[in-house]
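Hey L., structure's done. Input below.
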Amino acid sequence: MEYTVQKLAQIAGVSSRTLRYYDEIGILKPARINTSGYRIYSQQEVDTLQQILFYRELGINLDSIKNIITQPSFDREKALREHRIKLLEKREQLNLLIANVDKTIASTEGRITMSDKEKFEGFKQKLIDENEEKYGKEIRQKYGNKSIDRSNNKLKKMTQEEYDETTRLRDEVLEVLHAAFQTGDPAGGLAQKAADLHRQWLSFYWDTYSKEAHAGIAQMYVNDERFTAYYDKKQPGTAEFLRDAVLIYTGMKN
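Output:
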């Protein structure tokens, strides 16, 4: 069966403008253009659109989706099975948050006593799931499943005070790092303070700290464009500056 832009947009629950945009960026081209100049989509494009929307539901950006589905090795059936696993994980996360709300209501009404740790379980799991979605494959390959699982378990067991401290440290790392970047000296006092704050922040998640691992993750910030984009958001080159500061801090700089 074939569809025009308007028909496909209607059955897919997206706008015609979205389909035209997908055509423009090359992620979903129509099967053909008819004699009247209308875009015509075949079953193959319908299936591709379904894949795109699955990935979008999981929070993956269009550039990444395009890279995935245009690979010659792309396996649609395998992708669907992976979608199912991710959606089940997302459902589990929603169930945790719903249970958290139910407990909070019961606590407010005086029917149960809810610990501070219980109040934030669902949110911690959400953070873990988001990190796994964004970076899980890379960091598990680099550090191993056992190491990452231990880190996730450590996060789950954090008290609210500890969790608040990780947030404070994360923000302070960025603040000091941006100030240090202006000096242009990764060996300077501000840069080394940023490296030490970064160590303190990592130590909340790691079972044991090592200089080698610290230097390795700083290098990953430069090698992986997603990490680079995070640190370079305000000042391009910040990720490399942090890497250099950490290499000096850990004594790993050649």
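DSSP finds 13 helices and three strands in the chain. The first strand starts at residue 3 and ends at 4.

-- N.
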